[in-house]
């Protein structure tokens, strides 16, 4: 029993990441009709926002302390991060909390990146076939990756969660669950809720939803739907970005983390139903949980190697049995 | 392209064979005249030619073709281990195995089209890749990679008393220039086969599927058997390339199956020009050239290259170019990829045609029209009926487009 609960919990936080990425993908697809293979790269860029922010915070001021000397007799150099020098103890707290705080930086940065990508590249691809869209965004993903690799190197850069969240929660004797994963799960649920609230409760969201249904009619009503869709694409980038930021303490970011997630999240989107936001979320959590169940030793003993292929297997079955995906709308990409 | 005579096709094939034969001479001035690299050109050329039969003709974008290459490699290495060091059994084994795998994957994936097809093939390829690393380790030797050992049984060799330390073809060792000419001969054969397929009724059917699958259905064609054959054929080409790859470097690893490898063959094909005969080979050559020559540049060489510039400027120039060569060559690759898709969807072949003004081709507006998009999206018009004048043909196309637009608006 304990093992099952543990696997569900493990699956939930992984599922949270899948759901967030798939949500962004679906937003871009549902509004602009664009299949964005660079979405994983946006996740990666978000993660590197956290890295950059941490680096900025820990820039150090070097002062020579004349009263003390090193064992070799030269004056001792005291290095203090400038934030700490400026803000004292608050600076320390600031650095400790660099990962969650960097969301503040990541949101405008990712929004900007998303809008630039949409205006600069993707809008020329609305009318082109999906194959072209896949290929051009695939190229974009390579370019983004390589730029990050150039500046940050190929090795993963570990980020730490704030001190108080670094431990684990001892639920029962057998169930130990790291605090940060709980935070991640809560965070992903909050972001998902925020996106849905934005789309369901605001006028802007209403217009966007109307545009997803029938773009032409909304345009005929005199609404500049294209600009709103651009903003939605930016929003998708933000969702991917913050998902990346919060994921950094779980897996140290490196330049190709996005690609690893991309393939999976595409599978998630397809399983959930192309263009269906609730479908993406549901499929994200479902596949996350399925994957952690498949990696249980008992299951692996039964069907060796199942943990490696379960997600793809599920995708194949779903695509063949339910061409629309779990919650796909009728008539959307259904052939 | 279509209204070329049989003679022109034969001339093209012979010209191609001559270029391959003179490869060492032609490629020396640009620093690519060594057998290892030319061999790679040839092997990946075969891979791309095969991929082009699927993507170029039918417009179905497979994102999992590297799986067939990888399976071909494994099959070839096992043939080297168990049967014989000769290339022939290895080729037969890997082509058959890759064909079988393609049959299975294609049978399932081809039930869907468009992006779903891409994702299904991607899912299958990732499954193969993941399994090669985990469950199938006894067969694939996991991360270490499968290699040929001296004391492997090699039953056929033992029966004939044939001993060869390296993979060979009827006694010719596949190394150095011999290796290149063996691969080159296979490349020419593959090219000839692809010409034959392009010109055959089968090839025309595939093109028809690309331009409008529904209409094909109305005229009574069941498109799936044709698509499946195309898929299997291109999988077999990939298996063939995989066996040659294993023969030149008898160490098969799962990384050959990774989806970035599948992306690479897509890039090679579209860079050259999907749906054209020469395009895939040209694209392959260009990319493998980039990979080998560009990635070898380092800062000293760049500094020497730009020695004529004044000091301050030189440093800046070296720094910026340094971004794109050496370790950063993939950045160049990505940019190239985007540039081709954006500006030249017809690939290099279209660029050449446009430059020379050889043919009156309407601008290619998309790479491979996915079947269900047709009629709404832009159509790829590949050829004109030969009897009409260019102007007349243009008018006809315009009319057709108008009619199509009307039809699209009507409901």
From TrEMBL, chain A:
Name of the protein: Branched-chain amino acid ABC transporter permease
Source species, domain of life: Bacteria
GO biological process, one term: amino acid transport
Major localization listed first in the record, in broad terms: membrane
One example GO MF annotation: transmembrane transporter activity
InterPro entries registered for this protein in UniProt: ABC_transp_permease, BCAA_transport_permease
Transmembrane regions listed in the UniProt entry: 16-35, 42-62, 97-122, 134-152, 182-208, 229-250, 262-289, 301-321
Keywords: Amino-acid transport, Cell membrane, Membrane, Transmembrane, Transmembrane helix, Transport
GO cellular component entries: plasma membrane
From TrEMBL, chain B:
Membrane topology term: Multi-pass membrane protein
Gene Ontology, cellular component aspect: plasma membrane
Location relative to the cell: Cell membrane
UniProt keyword annotation of Transport present: no
A GO MF term: branched-chain amino acid transmembrane transporter activity
Keywords recorded for this protein, A-Z: Cell membrane, Membrane, Transmembrane, Transmembrane helix
One Pfam family named in its UniProt record: BPD_transp_2
Transmembrane portions of the chain: 12-34, 41-67, 87-108, 115-136, 174-198, 226-247, 329-349
InterPro entries, A to Z: ABC_transp_permease (IPR001851), LivM-like (IPR043428)
Main location: membrane
Chain intervals with Basic and acidic residues compositional bias: 391-411
Disordered: annotated span: 367-411
Domain of life (superkingdom): Bacteria
Protein name (database record): Branched-chain amino acid ABC transporter permease
Organism name: Rhodopseudomonas palustris
């Amino acid at each position: 029993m304990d093992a099952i609960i543990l696997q569900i919990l493990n699956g939930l936080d992984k599922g949270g990441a899948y759901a967030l990425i798939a949500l962004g993908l679906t937003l871009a697809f549902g509004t602009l009709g664009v299949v964005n293979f660079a979405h994983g790269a946006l996740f990666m860029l978000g993660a590197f926002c956290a890295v950059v922010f941490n680096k900025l915070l820990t820039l150090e001021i070097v002062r020579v302390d004349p009263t003390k000397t090193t064992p070799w007799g030269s004056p001792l150099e005291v290095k203090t991060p400038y934030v700490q020098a400026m803000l004292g103890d608050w600076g320390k707290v600031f650095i400790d909390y660099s990962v969650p705080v960097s969301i503040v930086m990541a949101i405008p940065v990712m929004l900007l990146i998303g809008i630039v990508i949409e205006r600069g590249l993707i809008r020329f691809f609305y009318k082109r076939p999906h194959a072209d869209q896949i290929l051009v965004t695939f190229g974009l993903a390579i370019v983004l990756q390589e730029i990050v690799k150039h500046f940050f190197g190929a090795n993963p850069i570990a980020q730490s969660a704030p001190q108080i969240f670094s431990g684990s929660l001892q639920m029962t004797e057998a169930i130990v669950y790291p605090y940060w994963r709980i935070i991640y799960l809560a965070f992903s649920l909050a972001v998902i809720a925020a996106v849905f609230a934005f789309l369901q409760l605001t006028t802007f969201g209403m217009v966007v939803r109307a545009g997803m249904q029938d773009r032409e009619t909304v345009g005929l009503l005199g609404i500049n739907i294209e600009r709103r869709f651009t903003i939605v694409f930016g929003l998708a980038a933000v969702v991917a970005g913050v998902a990346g930021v919060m994921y950094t303490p779980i897996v140290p970011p490196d330049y190709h983390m996005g690609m690893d997630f991309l393939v999976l999240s595409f599978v998630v989107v397809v399983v959930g139903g192309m263009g269906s936001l609730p479908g993406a979320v549901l499929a994200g959590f479902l596949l996350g949980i399925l994957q952690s169940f498949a990696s249980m030793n008992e299951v692996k003993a039964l069907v060796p190697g199942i943990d490696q292929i379960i997600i793809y297997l599920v995708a194949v079955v779903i695509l063949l049995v339910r061409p629309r995906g779990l919650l796909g709308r009728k008539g959307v990409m259904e052939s | 392209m279509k209204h070329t005579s049989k003679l022109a096709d034969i001339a093209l094939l012979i010209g191609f064979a001559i270029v391959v034969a003179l490869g060492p001479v032609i490629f020396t001035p640009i620093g690519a005249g060594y057998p290892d690299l030319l061999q790679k050109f040839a092997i990946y050329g075969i891979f791309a030619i095969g991929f082009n039969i699927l993507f170029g003709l039918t417009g179905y974008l497979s994102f999992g073709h590297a799986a067939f290459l990888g399976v071909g490699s494994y099959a070839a290495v096992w043939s080297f281990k168990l049967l014989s060091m000769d290339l022939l059994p290895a080729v037969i084994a890997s082509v058959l195995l890759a064909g079988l795998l393609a049959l299975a994957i294609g049978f399932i994936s081809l039930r869907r089209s468009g992006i779903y097809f891409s994702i299904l093939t991607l899912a299958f390829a990732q499954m193969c890749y993941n399994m090669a690393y985990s469950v199938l380790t006894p067969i694939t030797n996991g991360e270490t990679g499968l290699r040929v050992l001296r004391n492997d049984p090699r039953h056929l060799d033992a029966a004939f008393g044939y001993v060869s330390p390296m993979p060979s073809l009827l006694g010719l060792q596949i190394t150095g220039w011999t290796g290149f000419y063996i691969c080159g001969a296979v490349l020419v054969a593959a090219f000839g086969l692809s010409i034959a397929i392009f010109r055959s009724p089968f090839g025309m059917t595939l093109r028809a599927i690309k331009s409008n699958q529904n209409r094909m259905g109305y005229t009574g064609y069941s498109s799936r058997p044709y698509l499946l054959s195309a898929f299997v054929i291109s999988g077999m080409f990939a298996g063939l390339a995989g066996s040659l790859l294993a023969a030149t470097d008898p160490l098969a690893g799962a990384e050959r199956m990774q989806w970035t490898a599948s992306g690479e063959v897509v890039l090679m094909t579209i860079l050259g020009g999907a749906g054209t005969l020469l395009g895939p080979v040209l694209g392959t050559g260009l990319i493998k050239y980039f990979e080998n020559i560009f990635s070898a540049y380092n800062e000293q060489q760049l500094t020497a290259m730009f020695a004529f510039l004044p000091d301050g400027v030189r440093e800046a120039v070296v720094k910026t170019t340094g971004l794109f060569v050496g370790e950063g060559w993939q950045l160049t690759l990505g940019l190239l990829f985007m540039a081709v898709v954006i500006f030249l969807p017809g690939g290099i072949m279209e660029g050449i045609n446009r430059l020379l003004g050889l043919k009156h081709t309407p601008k290619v507006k998309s790479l491979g029209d996915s079947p269900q998009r047709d009629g709404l999206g832009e159509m790829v018009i590949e050829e004109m009926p030969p009897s009409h004048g260019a102007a007349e043909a243009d008018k006809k196309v315009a009319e057709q487009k108008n009619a199509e637009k009307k039809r699209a608006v009507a409901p």
